[in-house]
Structures are given as C-alpha cells and as structure tokens.
Amino acid sequence: MLISVVGTGYLGATHAACLAACGHEVVGVDTDPDKVARLSSGRAPFVEPGLDELLGRGVASGCLTFTTELAAAAAADVHFLCVGTPQMPGSHAADLRALESVVAALAPHLDRPCLVVGKSTVPVGTAPRLAQVLRETAPAGDAVEIAWNPEFLREGHAVEDSLHPDRLVLGVQSDPADQVLREVYARAIVDGVPVVRTDLATAELAKVSANAMLAARISLVNLLAEVCEAADADVADLTTALGLDRRIGPQFLRPGIGYGGGCLPKDTRAFAARAEELGVGVPAGLLREVDTVNMRQRARTIDLAARVLGGSPRGHRVAVLGAAFKAGSDDVRDSPALDVAGTLQARGADVHVYDPEAGDNARRARPGLRVEPSVEAACRDADLVLVLTEWEEFAGLDPVSLAAVVRTPAVLDGRLVLPVDKWRAAGWDVHALGRGSG
Ligand code: UDX
Question: Do 232 and 125 lie in a common domain?
C-alpha cells in the first residue's frame, strides 16, 4: 500500500519507519528541510532507541522516502496526519494551526479516492471540521474520507510501541475505511493486537483520556507522597503495597517531581479547556487540579532543596543530574528537571547540570545553565546533588566515590531511584518528597 505520513516529528518519523518495516511504501513529508535531509540519510533527528536502524533499512530498501513536497504524497491511498498540536500561547487549549494548514495544503492534491487518517492528538470534535475542509476543497470531493487513529507511543519506546501496540483504535465512518486501516496494520493484527472500532469522537477522546488517566495517576501518587510526609510515612513502601493490588498494578506509580514532556502536560490542559467548552465543568475542574498538583511538585522540590541548603539556594553550588523529561529520551520539552534547575539558578544557586543524552537540548533551551560532560564534573564541590531524571546511570551511581567529589554529601532524590540504605551507609544525607521526615 502507498502511504503518506505528513509531519515527521517523534510520532510521524517513527510511524513512517514502522509502516515501511511492515512492508508498505511510505513517503514522509515535512516542511523542515534539515529534518527531511537527516531522515533521508536514515538517521532520526532525536534520540529514540532502534529508530535509526529502522530508518536506515527503510531508506536503503527504497520503500521509505522523505520530502518537503506535499505533491509527492498525492498518489497515496492513505494519508496519516502526524503534525504537532502544542499548547496555544496564552491559553490552555490545543493549537491546531499546523494541523489545519496541513489539511488545507494537502486537499488540492487529493484527486482520487483516499483515506485521510488523523493521528495527532486533538480536542474532541476536530475530525468533522477537517472532513468538511477536505470535502469542499479536494478535487476528489466526497471520495476523500476521514478516519481517526490515535497513537499511544511513549518516547524512548516508540518503535516497540508502534510495532507492538497494546491496542489499535480505529475511529471510522464506514466499513471500507475500517478495511483499509486493517490492511495498513495487518501485521500487528495477525500478531493478536486488539482492535477497537469506534466513531470519530470516541477515537479522538481515546488519546486524551489515556493521557488524562496517566497524568491523574501520577498526581494522585504525588498527593499521597505529601500525606506521607505529614504522617511520617514512606511513599516508596506505600506504592509497593498499592502496586501489588492487581486492580491497581505497579506501573505509573512512581512519585517525584511530576510528569513533563511534549504530551501529558499540554494534553491534560487542552482536555480541560475542551471539557469547559463542552460545558462539563466538573471534569474540567478535576483535570485542572491534576495539572496544578503536578506543577506544584516542582515548587515543592525547590522548597525542599532550599531547606536542605539552610533556607535559600543563593550562593550554593548545586548539581542537577538529569535534564530530559524522562529517562531514555533527549527531549527537554516541559521537563520538570530543567524547570527545577532553571528556578534554582534564578534563585541564586550556581547550578551544574548533567544528562547522558539531553545535554545539547538543555543548553539550547536554557543557555544560562552550565551543562557538564559527566556526573563527576556536575557534582564537583556541590553542596547538594539533585537527581531529577530517572536514568539508570544515576540509580547505579557509586555513592562512596561520589562522596569524595562533592563538598557536602547531601542528595535530593526527585525520582525515588536511589538505593537509600546504600547512600546513607556511604555517609550521605538522603532527602526525597514523600519519605517521612526526609
Ligand atoms: C505519554 C504517554 O505515555 C503516551 O501513551 C502518549 O502517546 C504520549 O505521552 P511520553 O510523553 O513519552 O508518553 O512519557 P511517559 O512515559 O508517559 O512519561 C510522562 C512523564 O511522566 C515523564 O516525565 C515521566 O518521568 C513521568 N512519570 C511517569 C512519573 O512521574 N511517574 C511515573 O510513574 C511514570
């Protein structure tokens, strides 16, 4: 099947490479010539395990091409819309301008029957508006059908999540559209991936609802951490106990500085804004509270750091281990780690940051921060070390040798990844939100 993928960010580049790996002929389209050049050479413009290999194979086989020309997509049977829907400046709503302009630009090229499939995360009710634009401006008119097929991939596991998803949600308006999408995903379906066929609105909601559930879970666990502090209890043991309940399960139960990244924060806000528009105020209120609790974790982390430093970060040298919004990624969008580092710096600390992958992006995003090439360089003479991204490299650090590098052996574990007993035995003061008097 000939498929176009419009927008080649985390989602589109991975989707294009995985479709090619499943035997389709794929053309990826993006307005950014640098990104297109890099992808055309078989390399991803970001860190994503396994993606370079897949891109390299696809490009070498000739089944996967990238271009800046939308006209190259004209002949495709299926067009996937994968452009970003960031937070609107000055508002909590989603900014759909990129998506709308891609649909407006694609429509004049659609002169034969085809399926346009939205994958971008959108407010419920977007698909019918795009369908109307396509109907009115595509030469093929009514022969252009729209479907919605949300993507649930996680950064750092994007290839695995795309090739072996937990489920496929197919939001379709007809049996032929359903058939086409089942052909696109034939390999995954043969492998037993469950398919949920829905209407367009339910498919749009499936994505924001999943992200809202995940965000709410993290915020709830962070609220429990706060109660633990007040009650002198231990949130790490508490989440172990909770996670063993099979109805709850152990995933997404890690407390700490909260969630970040290009999806959870902005999707939760956009969902709240859309719920408000739809006149469902109580759901909107709960979603806003999830966001408030999440952002508060960053402030609580800074307060704890200030307390450990004797009342204020001013004049202290501080090491921040982690800049990426999570381990396994070089993405620093809405990164809690970078946010905390920047605020400590703004409050007068001399902040030195290290991240195994996100150093360059951190430098670009926060030119004022000192980004160091290693843990040791970041920690040299530090009065406090903060572990703010859950990299395995940090969990496995040797507290004995690191104690010889710092000025004061004090660590704030913002992700609850350190083996506390081992660090305490090496002479460290270990602090964490949610750990009793910690
Ligand atoms: C998320 C969704 O998981 C994915 O389905 C969707 O397609 C895109 O958004 P991603 O942004 O890659 O994926 O990150 P995710 O793994 O969900 O983590 C989000 C944030 O939550 C990270 O900052 C992570 O550190 C934090 N997190 C995660 C916690 O604080 N605690 C946890 O228990 C789990």
Answer: no
φ, ψ at 52 (rounded to 5°): -60, -40
β-pairing, 64-67 vs 78-81, is: unpaired
pTM: 0.96
Which residue(s) pair with 321 in the sheet? 354, 387
pLDDT of 435 reads 86
Instruction: Specify whether 223 is located in the same domain as 243.
Output: yes
Q: Which residue has the tokens 């086989």?
A: 61
Provide the strand spans (E) within 244-367: 317-321, 350-354
Name the average pLDDT for the chain: 97
Question: Ligand 1: which residues within 6 Å by Cβ?
Answer: 151-155, 210-211, 214, 218, 252-254, 256, 258-261, 263-264, 325-326
Shared domain for 234 and 301, answered yes or no, is no
Query: CATH no. for residue 407?
Result: 3.40.50.720
Cα–Cα dist 438/431, whole Å: 5
Mean pLDDT value across residues 44-63: 96
Domain that holds residue 408: 297-431
Domain check: are 24 and 99 in the same one?
yes
**Banded model confidence at residue 281, pLDDT cuts 50, 70, 90:** very high
Q: Which of 259, 292, 325 is the last residue of a domain?
A: 292
Which of 214, 388, 417 maximizes ligand 1 atoms within 8 Å of its Cβ, making it the mutation to test the pocket?
A: 214
Which tens digit of pLDDT belongs to each residue from 194-204?
Answer: 999 999 999 99
Token pair, residue 403, equals 């104690």
Q: Is the pLDDT of residue 380 over 60?
A: yes
